[in-house]
Amino acid sequence: MKFITSLAICLIITNTALANKEIEPYSQETCQKIYESIGTFILLADTEWKKEKERQAMLYSTAASNYATIYETVCRK
Fold first, then answer.
1. In the 8-state DSSP scheme, what is residue 18?
2. Considering the entire predicted model, what is its pTM?
3. Are 48 and 56 spatial neighbours (Cβ–Cβ below 8 Å)?
């Protein structure tokens, strides 16, 4: 129980300490590569879904979603 409480306190302190940190935008070239990766992962997810490999399709779909979040955070300012 002490371990879980200590872990929770550390996570809360770390999370709030980084809340004020300014996120610098990525370069245009990096943003373009991220954008292309999103399309690649979506294409792979669609291909796997059509092969009825749902688990692999979800993996690629999740990766596309994560890349889209990164793109929105650091490229769309």
1. T
2. 0.66
3. yes
